[in-house]
Amino acid sequence: MTFENGYINLDGILSSTRSYAPETMVVGHRRLENISFAMGKPQELITYYEYDKSWDFELDEFISAVNGGARVVNGTSKDAYEIMKITDHVYGK
After folding, report:
1. Beta-carbon contacts of residue 48 (< 8 Å; ≥ 6 apart)
2. Which residues make beta-bridge pairs with 8?
3. Is the pTM of this model over 0.85?
4. What is the Rg, in whole angstroms, of the alpha carbon atoms belonging to the chain?
5. DSSP letter at 35?
6. I need a surface site. Which of 23, 40, 57, 72 has the fewest CB within 10 A?
7. Are the C-beta atoms of residues 52 and 14 closer than 8 Å to each other?
8. What is the pLDDT along the chain (93 residues), one digit of tens a residue?
9. How far apart are CA 53 and CA 51, in angstroms?
């Protein structure tokens, strides 16, 4: 994603086999004080993600809901429906 003062680049897929590129987020900032120096050489902050616990959190929440201990808050059927609406809009359906 490119913006007026910088960009965000998400890359890679975190998998157990490590067969894909490492999951990273690169945030680039344009230095506004010297535009001639900043062109093509933005300052970058790179974050590497090595662990993804999101599935563990979602599964724990789901099991708790099935056992009657809690409501599903993340990944509800309403969330799925809203994502499908966005997808349909993006593809012009």
Report:
1. 22, 23, 24
2. 27
3. no
4. 20
5. H
6. 40
7. yes
8. 988 888 999 998 887 777 777 899 999 987 766 666 556 677 899 999 888 788 888 888 889 989 987 888 888 889 899 999 999 999 987
9. 6
CA neighbor of 29 nearest in space, from 46, 9, 44, 14? 44
Give 90's Cβ-side CA count (13 Å radius): 6
Give the DSSP letter of residue 71. Answer: -
Going from the C-alpha of 18 to that of each of 10, 22, 35, 47, 70, the distances in angstroms are 17, 7, 39, 17, 34
CB 54 within 8 A of CB 74: no
Q: Rounded distance, CA 86 to CA 72, Å? A: 22
Q: Which two tokens stand for residue 12?
A: 């890679």
Tokens of 78: 């309403």
